[in-house]
Amino acid sequence: MGYFYFSSQILNRASHSAVAAAAYRSGETLYSERDGLTKNYGERIVQPQCFILKPKHAPDWVMDRERLWNEVEKIEKQKNAQMVREIRLALPTVLNEEDQKELLLEFCKRNFSDEGMVADIAIHRDKEKNPHAHVMLTMRPFNEDGSWGNKRKKINQEVGGVIKKVSVHLTDWNEKETLSRWRKNYAEVINEKLNIRGIDDQVSHESYKKQGLERIPEIRLERTAYRYEMQLKDKAARNKTPYEPATFYGKINEEIRQLNAQLGKLSDDRRKQVISISEYQNEKTLKEQIKLVRTSRQLSVEEKSALQMVAQRSKSYVDFRIAKHIKDEIEQGSWKKKIESDRVKILSEKNLLSKAYKAFQEDPKQVLKFGFKPTHFLAQMKDKVASIKVMEQKNSEDLRKYSLLLDKSVKALEVQRELTEKEFLVLYQMNSKIPIDEMYHAVQYFKDTNQVLNKEEIPKYAKSKQNEIHKNVPSLSDQTKNISKSIFILDRAIQKQRKVILNSLQEQKYDLVYEANKKVEQYKIQRERHEKDLAGNVELIKVELQSHYSDSLESIKNAEVILQLKDRHEKGLSTGRVDQDLHLIISKFEKENADTSDQTLTPEKQIEKTYSQNIVSGLLQVLDQVERANKNKKRGKDPTEKKQRRRYRGQHLDH
User: Fold this and answer.
1) Would you say 391 and 345 are in contact if contact means Cβ atoms under 8 Å apart?
2) Tens digit of each residue's pLDDT (9 = 90 or more) over 553-604
3) Which of 531, 307, 525 has the alpha carbon at shortest distance from 408?
4) How far apart are CA 414 and CA 420, in angstroms?
5) Which of 190, 324, 482, 504 is the most exposed place for a label (fewest CB within 10 A)?
6) Where are the beta strands (DSSP E) in 179-282?
7) What predicted TM-score, i.e. pTM, was given to this entire model?
């Protein structure tokens, strides 16, 4: 009986990059638009043999690997969206390379591309005795016009005697039965090719038990452990000494092979006495098995370097949580902020030079307001451009170094994720699809208490631990308020710099004029970015509040108004009417600021008071709009609809 291997996994947006996965499997260098990084995993000893098969309705651009997976990442926008289904399968070693390729392409065409999926195929032949293929499949069908289709649609369905809208898949690609059919079809394609070539061998997609074979299946080793065991076998063969496995699962597989050899000789009565693999595993304590997961993992040079970097930064033992914390710290830390800040400064100065150049073309005297002298404009412009190029080069170099550090943190996190998944598997003996954070906390609970949680308790326990870790993370309201305040401060800073420009022009201090203009451009860019973030947060909060208020919040755009309404609702003080709540909020603000004198306030307090006055101004504007809308509603008028009239035969007709 020949060897058969066929497995499937889903790559989701939260944990994977489709472009990076395609780059690794194809051996090509691909640019990811999602993170702005080029994915390159180095030259392979044997270059993969790659193909792309497309369905009938798919556009021609899917044949471009880089564009294909960038487009997938654009269309799959949800945080945990399923982007790729990867099929990994072994190619029969008894066939030559051309036959292996033919049967693989035939299978992928029948089962994948003809069914509506784009199949990105990579055949790996790095190891002579382990030819295999990776098939990356799109998860979303194409419409007849070549555009992306939907994964699901809502239909009316009877549930408990009531007709409800339910969401159903538009394809059967996610069904277990479909995966079973693919496995069966692949075995049939292999056997068909073996028969054509006159090879007396067959494969089966079914388990030993279903095939009626008295055998125990071996455990498939992860790649590093497999390579290490192969090195030991080669060394034993060269030295003409017995091979002894070193890794945990390698030792188990050796015992399984011995048991399978004995099974062939035992009578039916004796077979009942043979211990199972689960009984063997239970002979060792769980603690020993957990320890072996990490001690038996052979690390590559890159993985060692990545883990050492994380250990140095954290100054502690590295596990999944520490690796994730360091990665998040690098992604959101001061170095990244400095790189982004430098980039904003470069962009703001470019914008300033562009405006100055346009002004110079229209009227050379106009460049004075940008800090240039008309008679020296071109020379000054040349110096500024040269300075910007130097800044850009430094910024690019900083970004390159930062990206290398970030890649190391990602590599360390991948190793810790793998180890945590294996530790969880030791404890629960199942390939559960629960989130990795829950796996980590379940494993950590065992390490701390030497006890195993019930499977039903894992989500609740993990949530409590996550709340402890993230207790200092600002809430959505706090984040929104901070952004709103930042915009207010930026507006004041812009006004201040514009005054500096006017004063410096009067004093003919053109260097100060230029610097002040540069700051104005910088603050504008920062404000624009904050406004985008603010708009998104406001919409989220409005969705939360809308079920509480009887009147619509759609027309309210002011962030502070929405925040004040949310605060009142959370404290249980809301009336359920927007206009009434706004009256009460305004009264509260006016009372708080009535007894404070500007002379007695510190500069920081003066800014706070001005900010409060700005909030009240916004509240009054929104209140006026709401009250006018309520009056129009009472009179039967629709304030959002403009009626157009025209005169026809002396009459007014409404449209």
Assistant:
1) yes
2) 777 777 888 888 888 888 888 888 877 887 887 777 767 666 555 555 555 5
3) 307
4) 10
5) 482
6) none
7) 0.47
